Amino acid sequence: MLPASPRNGHRSDGPVILLEHIHKTYHAGEVEVHALRGVSLEVEAGDFVAIMGASGSGKSTLMNLLGCLDHPTKGTYRLNGLDVSGLTKDERADIRNRYVGFVFQGFNLLPRTSALENVEVPLLYSGVPRKERDRRASEVLAMLGLGDRLLSMPNQLSGGQQQRVAIARSLINRPAIVLADEPTGNLDSRTSIEVMEVFQRLNDEQRITMLLVTHEQDIAHYAKRIIVIKDGRIQSDSPMTARRDARKEFASLPPELEDEE
Amino acid sequence: MNPLVIIRIAFRALNKNKLRSTLTMLGIIIGVGAVIAMVSIGQGAQSTIQDQIASIGQNMLFIRPGSSNQGGMRFGAGSVSTLTADDVEAIRRECSAVRYASPGVRASVQVVFGNLNWSTSVQGVNQDLPEIRKWTVESGEFFTEVDIRTAARVVVLGKTVVLNLFPGTDPVGQVIRIRNLPFRVLGVMATRGQNQMGDDQDDTIIMPYTTAQRKLLSITHINFAMVSAVSPASTFTAEQQITELLRQRHRIKPNQEDDFTVRNLTDVADAAEETNSIMTRLLGSVAGVSLLVGGIGIMNIMLVSVTERTREIGIRMAVGARSGHIRLQFLTESVVLSLLGGLMGVGFGIGISIIISRLLGWPTLVSPASIAVSFLFSGTVGILFGYYPARKAAGLDPIEALRYE
Ligand SMILES: Nc1ncnc2c1ncn2[C@@H]1O[C@H](COP(=O)(O)OP(=O)(O)OP(=O)(O)O)[C@@H](O)[C@H]1O
Ligand SMILES: [Mg+2]
Questions:
Q1: What is the C-alpha separation between B222 and B305, in angstroms, rounded?
Q2: Which of A207, A205, A220 is nearest to A51 (CA)?
Q3: Ligand 2 mean position to B310 CA, how many Å?
Q4: Would you say A44 and A201 are in contact if contact means Cβ atoms under 8 Å apart?
Q5: Which of A147, B151, B305, B337 shows the smallest number of beta carbons within 10 Å?
Q6: Which chain A residue lies closest to B17 (C-alpha atoms)?
């Protein structure tokens, strides 16, 4: 099981994420696209943030910056108290490896590679020996209810199962934050609830800090806090009232054959 | 990152595309196979020549009448009659660097025994021949000085002649007929095989040179002489002493050319070896070109592979792979491809050279050096041609790579 917070290398004082006046400008030929225009944001450890907004408002751009896949044009970003806005490409790779977990809309698993090995990929780049890789990956997969599918290939798994493998991969290095960009975008409503149940459980039981981009109002209602972005700026930032509980909803769903196994 | 992990990832990636990997390796396999086979043929020929030189005797010298400029290789009996048995006797007596010397007379003859006959050549020599040519008598005995003085009608047979005239019987003591004259068989020489020209050295009859001169050819000169220096190191001294002595005996004025030619076997060997090493290099470079083509094949496939696996690269980068990791992964893949191809190519080349030596009867020699060199070369090909695709993979932007369809 993952240890409870404070997480590995995580300073328990201060916010996990601290954005100050972040700008991101893309140069598409002659045109300048101001994808983010001064975003400031604080996220405490154990928070669960839903990010919403119209298409092209800058949500994915923000997630890429938060995940150190990209660097801001202007402004500072402190992750875990560490200023990561001016890091080199390799340093950002190391930060992603240690502190960030990604969950994508399209799952992004390596094809023809078993669930176990997919989950182990981040550990390859942090030099964890094989035995420990296997042990940790099968633990996390078991925690997500895939203990009996360790050697299944992605094309042998349902969408919900594939996304759970991807979640397991995002958790394997005990990250400070997990970033999910439209994780339920490719899933039906039942499987979406299943995935949200996993996120809520991880957030509640292990205080994993979650940030989630979604277009769906009802998915956002599983979070604790909702941020709306418009034209590269934060339009609103409010705590979630009437939060949904995925576990209860899932239990009350009509019993149905869960997946085509 | 553990190198074993990288190698395992590379093997797995190649394993997922077995057919493509094999076809890609084919270029290297053929290239390395060709290098190994070609070089083995060249080196086989070279070592055969060296063996023959060693078996003939490195301290041996050939003398023939006529200058090296005039007439070139005129060996026929009677063409030039300036060399005599007395010259050879003088060489033997007076040149301190010479240990053995034998006159040589040649004739083509028909030999008859019972109802069998055989065309072969006669060599008229003296009793020193076995020493000079390092050629032993297998059964019976060689003729003596007395036989030479008396021009006795005695012969020693080469193995091929024995096989053709005496199938299944012992020739020693029998009498054969050459040009209607009876000759008694004294002995049989040991098997010698082919010389570097491909002639069967065992297809010969050896007799006293005096006998050949008087009974067969009616001449007083000789066709050539064979000399053995006291040691391989003294062949050059022997050559000088012989030249001086023969010029003096033939009364050649200082501004005149020699009327004889002394040849040293090491010269012959050197010339043969040089031709051979030129051939080896030529064959080797042809093979090297095919190795290059194999390398281009690897580069091509690696570039395709990088494009196909753009998303995989994006995923790996997102979860923490540095550019260096990605570069190493793809570089390892191409090196594994080329080294594996090299390994199979070595096997293929050895197989080819075995087949060549079986089917064509050419001597081949697969040297560890040629294996090591072509293995090294194929590894280098993998690095050189894998570097650009690997760099391309490592230079990808993770966000773009993740979005790639
Ligand atoms: N690499 C890029 N080069 C140029 N412009 C870009 C690039 N990436 C994003 N943009 C632009 O930046 C703006 C914000 O894009 P972003 O992907 O963050 O939007 P989004 O909120 O995630 O939209 P969606 O809901 O459709 O995913 C858009 O106008 C987009 O065209
Ligand atoms: Mg987006």
A1: 76
A2: A220
A3: 19
A4: no
A5: A147
A6: A112
Q: Would you list which residues of chain B are within 8 Å, Cβ to Cβ, of chain A?
A: 1-2, 5, 9, 16, 311-312, 314-325, 398-399, 402
- Residue A68 Cβ contacting ligand 1 at under 6 Å: no
HEC sequence for B154-178 = EEEECHHHHHHHCCCCCCCCCEEEE
List pLDDT tens digits, range A108-123: 999 999 999 999 999 9
Q: Where are the alpha helices (DSSP H) in B175-225?
A: 209-211
Place of tokens 């340093």: A91
Domains of chain B, by residue range, sit at 3-52+271-403, 100-226
| Mutation to test the B interface, candidates A124, A162, A181, most B Cβ within 10 Å | A124
Beta strands A177-181 and A100-104 are parallel
* 3 state SS of B203: coil
Convert the pLDDT of each residue in A118-151 to its tens digit. Answer: 999 999 999 899 999 999 999 999 999 999 999 9
With beta carbons less than 8 A apart as the criterion, state whether B262 and B243 touch: yes
A35-76: pLDDT as tens digits: 999 999 999 999 999 999 999 999 999 999 999 999 999 999
Q: Please give the interface size between A and B, counted as residue pairs whose CB atoms are below 8 Å apart.
A: 63
* Angle of the A115-124 helix axis to the A159-171 helix axis, nearest 10: 20
Of A96, A97, A124, the CB nearest to B5: A124
> Is B325 close to A125, i.e. CB distance below 8 A?
yes
Q: A110–B317: do the CB atoms touch at under 8 Å?
A: no
pLDDT score recorded for residue A256: 63
Of the candidates A130, A148, A211, A106, the one whose C-alpha atom is nearest the C-alpha of residue B312 is A106
Ligand nearest to the CA of A228: 1
| The CATH fold of domain A45-69+88-258 | Rossmann fold (3.40.50)
Number of C-beta neighbours around residue B181 at 10 A: 11
Would the pLDDT of B70 be above 80?
Answer: no
Half-sphere exposure of A88 (CA within 13 A, CB side): 4
Strand partners, A31: A28
Output the CA angle B125-B127-B131, nearest 5 degrees. Answer: 100
Distance B49 CA to ligand 2 centre (A): 76
Those residues whose C-beta lies under 8 Å from the C-beta of residue A64, and which sit 6 or more positions away, are A70, B399
What is the rounded CA–CA span in Å between residue A102 and residue A116?
17
Among protein residues, the one whose CA lies closest to atom 19 of ligand 1: A56
